[in-house]
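Supplementary Methods, section 5.1.

A reviewer requested that the exact input to the structure prediction be made available. We therefore reproduce it here, unchanged from the version used in the analyses.
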Amino acid sequence: MRPLKNWDNKTWLSSEKYISNFHKFLKTKTLLNKNTKILDIGCGRANIISFLQKKYRFKNMAIGVDILRNKNTKKNILFKKSNAINFLREGRKFDLILIKQTIHFFSKNKLILLLNFAKKSLNPKGKILIFSLKTKNNKIPCFKKMKHQLNKSLKKDEFLFKVIRKNLKKINESNFNYEVNISKNKYINMIKNRYISCLLNLTKKEINKGIGEIKFKYNNQIKFTDTLKCISFRK
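The structure derived from this sequence is encoded token-by-token as follows.
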């Protein structure tokens, strides 16, 4: 699979409104203050932890880990280009570990390894928050081929949720909802940039055909609810 480069590049996921709403949700799940030590696994351009770093002025700079370094990754955080499991092997301790829209890139065995190292990397009363797309009745606007690929990915997520529940055991589950309102043209540009992993292995011909379907299927302004399942574990 190609690397996912543009999920947080000029999308609603990188907007100030989204990040502000996500921050409000985080505050319902964990205590944040200047002493909080945060790790974001699969951080992308680090938009979320950059926002948190500015707001709370953490004594220990927030750390973001990703296998891909983008040119416009935020500079006010500590970025590590690394495999998450290898990074966690270093033995650093955190109060909050974020794993956002990342689990589908892991096999079952690698996910178990990731979870085991993440648990060991928590301070007392530390938390792991795992976010992934809602698997039932998902509202992401799709063309036919994209929907097929998305459903395959969501089916894998359902399996991985079971792995997580078995491994972490004492968890809480909830949903983070964000109301998306985006122009059709901007959404088409996101599709061209393969903003979501279910687009990565499609051919250019399949993408172009799908764009035609989107143009026909949706209004000029596309509105839907983007829902993430949140699994919360406390040490």
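The domain at 12-234 is CATH 3.40.50.150 (Rossmann fold). These observations are discussed further in the main text.
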